Structures are given as C-alpha cells and as structure tokens.
Amino acid sequence: MTSTPGRAKSCARAGVETLCCSTSAGVIISALTFDLMDLTRSKFVKMAGGGNDFIMLDGRKQKISDLGDLAARACIRGLGIGADGLIVLSTESETADVRMIYFNSDGSRADFCANGTRCAARFAVLEGLASRKMTIEADCGVVSATLLDDDRVKLEVAGPEAARLDRRLDLGDDGFATGVTMILGVPHFVEFVDGIWEVDVAGRGRSIRQHPDLAPDGANANFVQVHGRDRIDIRTFERGVEGETLSCGSGVLAGVAASALTGRVSSPLTVRTRSGIDYEAAFEIGSDGISKLTLIGDARVVYEGTMTRETIAGFDPHWVRHPGLRDPEVS
After folding, report:
1. Catalytic residue among 20, 21, 75, 113
2. 287: which residues sit within 8 A by CB, 6+ positions away?
3. Is the peptide bond before 317 cis (omega within 30 degrees of 0)?
4. Are 85 and 76 in contact (CB under 8 A)?
5. Contact (Cβ atoms closer than 8 angstroms) between residue 211 and residue 223
6. Distances in whole angstroms, Cα of residue 225 to Cα of each of 103, 153, 194
C-alpha cells in the first residue's frame, strides 16, 4: 500500500474527496536509520479497528527522523510492540483538521488505510487534536470522520476509481480468478466466492496480490461471500502486511463497492470480517457509478505504553521477514 511512485491525487467529485493513488512494492529496512534517543520513553497508544491493529503516535509531542524504519521494527510481533501498521497524527495540514501519516508493518508508506483512519479519528479526539466531527488528510486526500457517541467512527469517502467488473487472472495450478478491480485509496481485487471460511486466503491471496497483470502496484486480494441483499462476509490478503489480516477497512469498502456495482446488494448492509466484528456500510449509486461510501466501525483503545531501546533494537527485521537473507548491516 505504498504511495510511491505515482503519488496520490485528490479529485473533488460529488462533494466528497476522491481517493485515487497507485503504489509500489514495500521496501524492507533493517539497519537503524534514526537515533535511538529519539525513542527514549516515547509514549504510544495501541489501537485496533475491526482487528486491524496500529501503533499510534502524537506527532506534536515527538519527532522521529525515520518513521518507516521505526514501523519496520516496532510492528514485528514477538520482538517489538506488534501491529499491522504505525500512524502519526499532527495538525500540520492546510486542507484538513488533522494530518495522518501511515506506514505498513514492513516500513512502506501507505496512501490510505480505512481502519487506521477510523482509529486516527478517535485518537485525535482523545489527544485534543480535533473535535468529534473532523476532516483527516491522508496521502490519498481528505476524508470526513465522525466519532459517534458509542466511540465507533463513521467514515465518508468517494466511490472507487478505475473500476473494472470483469478482470480474469490466470493463477496457473489454482485455475482462474474472476473478479472486480478498483482503486479505493489503494488497489483492490475482489473475488466472489462460496464457502468463504474455507478459502485458502494465504495461497490464493498471495497469487492474486502478486499477479503480473496487476503490476507494478499489485492489489489487496479480497474474497467476498454474499448472504442476501443486506449482508456480506469478507476476508483480505493485505499488501504491506503480506498476509491475511483480521480486517481491512479499505477492503471492506471495496467489497461493498464491488457487490453494489454488480447488483448483489442494497444499501445499507452489514459486513462481517475475519475478526468476527461487523461493520455498517452504505453507498450512493447512480448511472455514473458509486458517488459515496460510508463505513461505521469500532476504533478500540487496547492499551497505552512507553517505548524503550529494546522495542526496536537488538534484532534484524529483514531476517525476521526473510529468514536466511540476513542484511549485512545488523543492529
């Protein structure tokens, strides 16, 4: 879900900020590129949205020279804090109330993360960066967010860009994958399946995510099962994490959009993810396609903590992700 090359564009349409961006493969960072003293006693909050978990930092209170390196280390489970991504918030935006910078767990910078944006909205209120109704600038543009009375967060984004309803990928021994592709903040491929909980998400998802027809950016691979007009289940193989996550917010939006564009569902509807946590989703659709998507889901504060030197030092994150390929510069 990285944002280079092909930097994000923000295109106003139907009164909602359009998310349209392309990505490249993530870069794994292993040698320390920042001063360990930057992190001495640094405060963080661990949050989760739908099972997607994040390390949250208040950018007003701490300045870190290389956030990608920090994410690549701190997000490793079992050695660091452990998370799907790292988010830094500040008020340094000319177009929104809050500026959000997001990194995947492998250290690559991401243009958009819907679950992360919901967590960012609640974090912004808790830290006094914004009121309950706000705008958030991500690398893909500006989205609207509202912290509801039950501490769930409502996101509003524009409809997908570059939607194609008939993509067919040759997966070799795994046959063909036929589905819908689109850009919804980041690229997605949506395949409709039966028996979703029996799908080999790791194997089939990786084949789709890395398919040459989706190069150079690749795509998040989403598997959707429709249960009537008002409910779908979804599982996602995420880029940047390079595996199935308990939830992918932009994947949920892509699954809803693909289901709507192919006439399978009506608005509103419920979406169940791998975590078992349900989302409320809605859409506005017309002759020109989907103009607006709404997503309501949890933004959980899991715990607060303080980083130490051992949070990010004493191990090689490149080795952890690619055993046998040790980086020559091991910290």
Report:
1. 113
2. none
3. no
4. no
5. no
6. 29, 25, 6
Confidence of residue 61 (pLDDT cuts 50, 70, 90): confident
Q: Measured at the alpha carbon of residue 52, what is the angle toward residues 49 and 56, in degrees to the nearest 5? A: 75
CA distance 69 to 106: 9
248 is catalytic: yes
Residue type, 35: D
Output the pLDDT for position 1. 43
pLDDT in tens, 123-143: 999 999 999 999 999 999 999
Report the SS3 class of residue 161.
strand
The two three-digit tokens of residue 52, written as one number? 């997607």
CA 138 to CA 127: how far, in whole Å? 18
CB neighbours (10 Å) of residue 173? 5
pLDDT in tens, 220-264: 999 999 999 999 999 999 999 999 999 999 999 999 999 999 999
Name the active-site residue from 21, 75, 119, 248.
248
Query: Which among 99, 21, 94, 23 is positioned nearest to 57, based on CA atoms?
Result: 99
Q: Return phi, psi of residue 213, to 5°.
A: -70, -15
DSSP label at 274? Answer: T
Task: Kindly indicate the confidence band of residue 30, based on its pLDDT and cuts at 50, 70 and 90.
Answer: very low
Query: Distance of CA 126 to CAs 10, 64, 131, 132, 162, Å?
Result: 28, 21, 9, 10, 36
Entry pTM: 0.87
How many helices and strands, by DSSP H and E, does the chain display? 5, 20
Residue 244 is inside which H or E element, if any? Answer: strand 243-245
Integer Cα distance of 274 and 245 in angstroms: 8
Query: Does residue 11 have an active-site annotation?
Result: no
Is there a contact between 137 and 145 (Cβ–Cβ < 8 Å)? no
Q: d(Cα 266, Cα 137) in Å, to the nearest integer?
A: 30
